[in-house]
Amino acid sequence: MKILHCADLHLGYETHGRLDPATGLNTRLLDFRRSFDVLAARAIAEDVDLFLFAGDAYRTADPTPTQQRQFAEALRPVLEAGIPVAMIVGNHDHPVSFGKASSVDIFGVLDGAVEVFSQPSFRGKDNPIRTKSGPLQLIALPWPIRSKILATDQYRGKTPHEIRELIESYYATFARQCAEAADPAVPLVVCAHLTVQGSELSGSERASLIAHEPTFTVPQLAPPGVDYVALGHIHRFQDRNAEAFAAGEGPPVVYSSSIERISFKEHDAEKGFVLVDIDPAGVPGRRTSFEFVATPARRFVPIQVDAAEAEDPTAAVLAAIGAHDIADAVVRVRYRVGEEQPAVDEAAVREALASADTIAAIERDLDAVERRQRTVVRSDTTLKDAMERYVDQHETLARIKDDLVAAALEIEREVDAATR
Q1: Beta-carbon-side half-sphere exposure of residue 46 (alpha carbons within 13 Å)
Q2: Are 261 and 322 within one domain?
Q3: What are the tens digits of pLDDT across the range 227-256?
Q4: How many folded domains does the chain comprise?
Q5: Maximal CA-CA distance, the chain
Q6: One domain for residues 206 and 242
Q7: 76 with 108: CB under 8 angstroms?
Q8: Closest Cα to residue 133, out of 276, 284, 239?
Q9: Are 272 and 142 in a shared domain?
Q10: Residues paired with 294 in a beta bridge
Q11: Which is it for the CA torsion 217, 218, 219, 223, positive or negative?
C-alpha cells in the first residue's frame, strides 16, 4: 500500500516575489504551484493508494480566491486519477473564531474522494478508508482549536497552561484508545499537525510560539500497532523515531517538511514530501518503508561579506558573490565596511547578481553607534501600525517587513484565542 505524505504548502507567501508578466501572478505563488505540481505528478506516477495531507494549505485561514484556485487546480489531477485524498486541518487553516469553517473545509463537500478532518477522528476497522489496495485505518489529529475548547462551559476560565495539558492528555489518550481498537491485520496510520518533543526546527517556525504549544512524545503519537505517523507543522524533514525504527521498535514518525522555502532561515533545509510503502502482510509496526522526495524548491542564497579590512570593498563583495551559485535563486547580500573605506559600488553588485531570480536585498551592516529615530507608539496605535513604524525605522528589516507584520498579527491572534 503506497501513501504520499505531504504538509505545509503555505500558499500565499509572496515575500521576495515579483509580478509575472505572463500570468499576472506573484512569482513566489508560481514557485509553490510548481512544487505542488511535481508532488501531484509523482502521486499519479507512483499510483499511490492515498494522498495524505498533514495540514497548512495556505499562509492564512483567509486565502484569496486566486490562492484557492491554485490549490484546487493542482489537486485536481490527483482526484481525476481516482486517488482518495485525506486532509487534516493545520494551525494556519483554521480561523480564530469558533464556528467558522476552515480554509480547507470546502474540499470535503466537492466532487471527488476528499475527506477533511477538523477534529480528532478515527477511521477504524468498521469504517476504514477504502483504497485500491485494501482498507486503511487512520487516526486523524488536526491542530487543536483552543477557541472551540474554551467555548465549552466546563473549560471556560482555564489558564493557557491548563488548556495545554488538557489537549495533550486528550490527544494522547485518543490515539492510544484508537490503536487498541484497531484491527492489527489492517494498516494503521496516524496523521497529526502537532509538535513532537525535540523536533529540529527549519528556522521559519517561531520557537517562542512553539514553546507554548501542546507538545507530544513519540510514544504518545505512535502507540503499539501504528505503522506510520505522518506529521505536519515543523518544516524540516525528519524521522523523530529513526533509531528505534531502525532497531525494529516502533514506526517511522516523520515530518515531511514543507514543499517550498519561506525565508532565508530555511536556505539550507531540504524541501519535499514522503512516499510511504506499507506491506499489509508484514508484521504490524515493522512493515513500513519510506522515501523522502525533494521538490524543485526555489533556492535561497544568503551572502555575508566582511569587507572592513579590504582595500577595495567592492571587489571583496564581488568575489564573495562569485563564490556562490546564484542562478535562478533568491539572493541576499549583506556586507560590512568601515566608515573610512570607499563606498561599495551597488550598481556593480547588482550587475554581478544578474543571473539571480530575485535580489532580496543588498544591505550594509550598520554600525551600532549610528543613531536611530525613536519609534513613537501611542495608546490608540494598532499593532499593525506599530510594527510598520518600527520596521520603517530599521532599514535592514525593510525586505522582511510583510513577514514581520504578519508574524506579529498571528501572535496577537494566538493570544486573543488563548484568553477568550
Answers
A1: 21
A2: no
A3: 999 999 999 999 999 999 988 889 999 999
A4: 2
A5: 77
A6: yes
A7: no
A8: 276
A9: yes
A10: 272
A11: positive
Instruction: Count CB atoms within 10 A of the CB of residue 64.
Output: 14
Domain boundary among the residues 243, 264, 294 is at 294
Asked if residues 362 and 328 have their Cβ atoms less than 8 Å apart, the reply is no
Tens of pLDDT along 106-146? 555 455 588 999 899 999 999 999 999 999 999 999 998 76
Distance of CA 336 to the CA centre of its chain: 33
Report the distance separating Cα 95 and Cα 396, nearest Å.
32
pTM (predicted TM-score): 0.81
CA 28 to chain centre: 15
C-alpha to C-alpha distance for 94 and 61, rounded to whole angstroms: 5
- Indicate the DSSP class of residue 375: P
Is 65 in a helix, a strand, or coil? helix
Is the model's pLDDT at 329 over the cut of 90?
Answer: yes
Q: What is the CATH number of the domain that holds 135?
A: 3.60.21.10
Enclosing domain of residue 345: 300-419
Q: Are both 261 and 321 inside the same structural domain?
A: no
**Does residue 49 surpass a pLDDT of 90?**
yes
Per-residue pLDDT, averaged over 141-168, amounts to 74
- Choose the final residue of a domain: 294, 319, 338: 294
